[in-house]
Amino acid sequence: MTSPAANPPATTPANTLDVRDAVKSYGDVKALQGVSLNIAPGQFMALLGPNGAGKSTLFQLLSGLFVPDGGAISICGEDFLKKPTVGLAKIGVVFQQPTLDLDLSVTGNLRFHAALHGLGRAGREQIAPLLAQVGLGGSEDKICRTLSGGNRRKVELARALLHRPALLLMDEATVGLDPQSRTSLMALVRGLCRDQGLSVLWATHLVNEAEQADRVYVLHRGKQLIEGTPAAVTAASGCATLEEAFLKMTVPPPGAPGAGGKPVEKTA
Amino acid sequence: MRAGHALEALGAISLRELRKFMQQRSRLLSALVRPLLWLVVFAAGFRNVFGVAVIEPYSSFIEYQVYVAPGLLGMICLFNGIQSSLAMVYDREMGMMRLLLTAPLPRAWLLASKLVAGTLLSLVQCYAFLVVCALFGVDLPWSGWLYALPALLLGGLMLGALGLLLSVYIKQIENFASTMNFVIFPMFFMSSALYPLWKLKESGADWLYWVASVNPFTHMVELTRFAMYGQLNSTSLAVVAGSATVFFIWAAYGYDPQRGMVKKRAQA
C-alpha cells in the first residue's frame, strides 16, 4: 500500500460503486425510477429482481453502454459519467450472453482482451496464473468451442479479472449453467471478494444465490424495494425464508396479471 | 488515452478481423467471383456494344475491361464495407459489441479501429482481384498498383464508414437484403463504375446523370481510375474525404451513449 499522502482523498473512496438516483427511460417505459446503491470494497451484493425489474438496464448503465437520464454514478470515487474510460478500466463484466470468440483458444480470447485494455506484456503474463486460479490450468490452448458451458463462463470470468478490476459485474452469469457449475462459479467469486477485496454486483433472479451474498438489493419495476443483509431482508418482511420474502414483495398487483414478469425461478 | 494502448487495441481488432476473414475462405472466394463475373461475362458482352472513347485519364482508346476494372475495385470495397457493418449488427446481437465497448477507450476510437480493420480486408480483396485481372490479361499499368493504394484506402474508409453508419440504423441481421436493394445496388449502378457519365448524359437520362455525378461512389471509382495512371482527381478526392468524414462522425454520433444507437429500443 502507498502512504495516505500519495493518495488524495478523492481517489481513496469508501465505496467502489456509488449510484445515486439513477433514472432511465426507453420511450414511455420507465426502466429505472431513481435507483441508489453503493458497494464497499470486498462486498458481494446480490441484485435480486424478477425479469423486467430493470436489472439489465442498470447493468447497461454500469458497463457504460448507455448513460442515465438523471442521477450520478461513480466508480472508485471517479465520476463515471464524466470520465467513462477511467471507470471502465476498473470494471470487469461478465455478460448474460456469451461473448467468447469460440473459434479462438482460451489464451487467444484473453490476449484480445489484454490488448483492448492496453495491458501489454505484463497483462499477457497474467493469463496463465489467472486461468489456473479459476480452475482452468492446462486448458490454455483449447479452442473455446470445445469447452463446456460452465468452463466457458470461467474463461469469461478470468477475462473480466485480467485487468485487475475493483468491481466485478456479473449479469445473470449463471443462467443456463448446471447446478455444479453455478456453485463453483459462486465459490470462486466469493473467494475473490474475501481474499482480494474485489467488490461484486451479482444480478440474479435465483433466491438461493442471493442468500449467499453480503447484502441483497431487491429491485422491482425500476425501484428499490429493500436493501440489507439476507437475514435483515427476510426479517423485515416477516417471512421465514428469503424466498418467501422475495415472492411476497414482488407479487403482481391484483388486476394486473403478469405485470411483474415471469415468476421467480426455483433453483435445482 | 495512451498512444500505446490505442495502438495495441487497434492492432488486436485488426488482427481479429483478418483472422476471421482468413478462416472464411468462401468469403474471399465470393469476394473475387463477384467482380470476376462482371469482368469476364459482362465485359465480354459489352466490349463491342460500346467502345470507350478517349476520355481522361486514358491517353488512348481502351478496352472495356480496362474501363470497368476500377469500378469493380470499388464494388469490392462497397460489398466489404457493407458486409463489415453486417458483422457489427451480428456482434451487437451476440453481445461481442458490448464487450468491445467496455474497453477503456473512447468509443470513437473503438469504432475507428473497427473501420480500419474492415478497410484492411477491402485492400486484401482489391489486391487479390488485381492479381486476377493480371491473369486475365487486363491491361492495367503496373505502377498503378502502387498509385491506387491511397485511393483504395481512402475509398475503403469511406464505404466502411457508410457501413458503420448503416449498422447504427439496421436493427436486425434480416434487414441485410433490403440494404442490398436500397444501398448497394443503387450506389453501384448509378455511378461511373460501369459506364462513363457522359454516356448517361448522351442518352438523355439527365436525372440519372445528376445523381451519378453526386454519388460518392462515383468519386471513389474516379479517384481510383485516375490514381491508376498516376493522376490526381482533386474533385473526387475532396468528395471522398468529405463523405468519409461525414459518415464517420454521423456513425460515431449514433453510437454515442448519450444519444444512443438504440436509445429508443425497449429494454433488452
Task: Characterise this structure.
The complex is a heterodimer of chains A (268) and B (268). Chain A contains nine helices and ten strands. With 268 residues, chain A is of the alpha/beta class. In chain A, the strands form two sheets. A six-stranded mixed beta sheet of chain A has the order 6-7-8-3-9-10, sandwiched between helices. Chain A has a four-stranded antiparallel beta sheet with strand order 2-1-4-5. Chain A is globular, with a radius of gyration of 19 Å. By secondary structure, chain B is mostly helical. Chain B has one domain. Helix content of chain B is 75%, strand content 0%. Chain B is built from eleven helices and no strands. In chain B, α2 packs antiparallel against α3 (64-94) and α3 packs antiparallel against α5 (107-135). Chain B is globular and about 55 Å long. Mean pLDDT of chain B is 86; it is low at 262-268. The A-B interface holds A 26-27, 29, 31, 52, 54, 56-57, 60, 63-67, 84-89, 91, 93, 95-99, 101, 103-104, 111-113, 115-118, 120 and B 1-2, 4-6, 8-9, 11-13, 16, 19-20, 23, 94-96, 98-106, 257-258, 260, 263-268.
At a glance:
Chain A has 268 residues and is α/β, with parallel strands linked by helices.
Low-confidence stretches of chain B: 262-268
* Percent in helix of chain B: over 70%
Helices and strands of chain A, in order, run as: EEEHEEHEHHHEHEHEEHH
- In total, the number of strands of chain B is 0
Secondary structure: elements and pairs:
The complex is a heterodimer of chains A (268) and B (268).
Chain A: E1 17-26, E2 29-39, E3 44-48, H1 55-62, E4 70-75, E5 78-79, H2 84-88, E6 91-94, H3 106-116, H4 120-133, H5 149-161, E7 167-171, H6 179-196, E8 199-204, H7 207-210, E9 215-220, E10 223-228, H8 230-237, H9 242-249
Parallel strand pairs in A: 3-8, 3-9, 6-7, 7-8
Antiparallel strand pairs in A: 1-2, 1-4, 4-5, 9-10
Helix pairs in contact in A: 3-4, 4-5, 8-9
Chain B: H1 3-23, H2 25-46, H3 64-94, H4 96-101, H5 107-135, H6 142-169, H7 176-189, H8 197-202, H9 206-214, H10 216-228, H11 234-255
Helix pairs in contact in B: 1-5, 2-3, 2-5, 3-5, 3-6, 3-7, 3-10, 5-6, 6-10, 6-11, 10-11
